C-alpha cells in the first residue's frame, strides 16, 4: 500500500529528502519523481490548486515509491480527510499552535479508534486495493506532519511532544520569523536559536523533525543539526538557477552579452 515505507524510515532516523511540487501536471510530477525524492511537498496552503487537481499526483507518487505529502490549507476535517482520501501518504497541517490544535489534527487525520476520520478512501481502486486494505492499514502507515510556526507553538512544544499519534514536526522558519518580529529574516539569531533548541528537544521524541529551505546550503546545515526530513527547494528553482549559471558562463566564455 505504501511503497515509500516512510514510517519505518522515520523510526530508523534515516535522512528523508523532498522537492516541492510546483505543478499539477502529471508529466512534470513524473520528472520530479525520477530525481529520487523520498517524499514530496505538495502544497495547497499557498498554491491555487484544489484537491481534485493533485490527487493523481499523490497516486503517481505511490507508484514511484515516493511519499506524497499534501500540505492542506488549514486544520480542518474536510481538508485533511480529502487529502488522505485522494492518496496522500502524509498530510501537513500549517500553523498548529497549541496542544488542543494538535489533538484536533489527530482526530481529523486518524481512523477510529485513534481519531474520527470518515471512511471513504477514494484512491483505493486506482491502486488496485480495496477500501478495507486502507481501513486496516492507514493508521499505522500514513504520517501526520504538524507545523510549528509561532512563538506560542514553541513555548508549548514540550506539551505537544508528549502527545502520541503524530509522526512529524515541521519547523516553518518563514512564519516563525514573523511571529518573532523579524519577518522574512530566516537566519536571524532569534529564529536560529529556536530551531537549534527544537532539534535538541526532538532527539528522544521518536518523531521526525522537518523543515524547508530554498538554498541547498541551508538545508545541508540544518540536516547536520538534526532535521532529518528536509524539503530542498524545488526542481524548478534549482533547474532555473543552474540554467542561469550555465548561460552566464557561456556568454562570458564566448563574449556574448545577454539579450536585451
What does this structure look like?
This protein has helices at about 5-10, 25-35, 50-65, 75-85, 100-110, 130-140, 150-155, 155-160, 175-180, 190-200, 215-225, 235-255; strands at about 15-20, 40-45, 65-70, 90-95, 145-150, 170, 210-215, 230-235. It has one domain (about 5-235): TIM Barrel (Alpha-Beta Barrel). It starts with 5 loop residues before the first helix and ends in a 6-residue tail after the last helix. Helices cover about 45% and strands about 15% of the residues. The chain is built from twelve helices and eight strands. Helix 11 links the parallel strand 7 (about 210-215) and strand 8 (about 230-235). It is globular and about 70 Å long. It is an alpha/beta fold and about 260 residues long. The mean pLDDT is about 95.
SSE arrangement:
Blueprint: H1 6-11, E1 16-21, H2 26-33, E2 39-43, H3 51-63, E3 67-71, H4 77-85, E4 90-93, H5 99-109, H6 131-141, E5 143-148, H7 151-155, H8 157-161, E6 168-171, H9 173-179, H10 189-202, E7 208-213, H11 216-225, E8 229-234, H12 235-254
Parallel strand pairs: 1-2, 1-8, 2-3, 3-4, 4-5, 5-6, 6-7, 7-8
Helix pairs in contact: 2-3, 4-5
Amino acid at each position: 500500500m505504501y511503497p515509500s515505507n516512510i514510517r519505518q524510515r522515520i523510526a530508523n532516523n534515516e535522512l528523508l529528502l523532498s522537492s516541492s511540487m510546483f505543478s499539477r501536471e502529471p508529466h512534470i510530477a513524473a520528472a520530479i519523481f525520477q530525481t529520487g525524492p523520498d517524499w514530496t511537498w505538495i502544497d495547497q496552503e499557498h498554491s491555487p490548486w484544489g484537491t481534485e487537481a493533485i490527487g493523481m499526483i499523490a497516486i503517481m507518487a505511490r507508484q514511484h515509491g515516493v511519499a506524497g505529502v499534501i500540505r492542506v490549507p488549514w486544520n480542518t476535517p474536510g481538508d485533511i480527510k480529502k487529502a488522505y482520501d485522494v492518496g496522500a501518504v502524509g498530510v501537513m497541517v500549517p500553523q498548529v499552535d497549541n496542544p488542543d490544535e494538535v489533538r484536533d489534527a489527530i482526530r481529523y487525520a486518524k481512523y477510529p479508534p485513534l481519531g474520527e476520520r470518515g471512511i471513504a478512501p477514494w484512491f483505493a481502486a486506482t491502486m488496485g486495493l480495496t477500501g478495507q486494505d486502507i481501513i486496516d492499514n492507514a493508521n499505522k502507515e500514513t504520517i501526520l506532519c504538524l507545523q510549528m510556526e509561532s512563538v506560542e507553538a514553541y513555548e508549548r512544544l514540550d506539551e505537544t511532544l508528549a502527545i502520541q499519534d503524530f509522526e512529524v514536526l515541521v519547523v516553518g522558519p518563514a512564519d516563525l520569523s514573523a511571529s518573532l518580529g523579524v519577518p522574512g529574516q530566516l537566519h536571524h539569531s532569534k529564529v536560529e536559536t529556536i530551531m537549534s533548541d527544537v532539534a535538541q528537544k526532538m532527539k528522544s521524541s521518536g518523531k521526525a523533525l522537518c523543515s524547508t529551505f530554498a538554498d541547498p546550503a541551508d538545508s545541508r546545515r540544518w540536516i547536520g543539526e538534526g532535521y532529518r526530513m528536509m524539503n530542498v527547494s524545488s526542481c524548478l528553482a534549482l533547474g532555473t538557477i543552474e540554467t542561469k549559471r550555465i548561460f552566464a558562463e557561456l556568454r562570458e566564455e564566448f563574449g556574448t552579452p545577454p539579450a536585451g
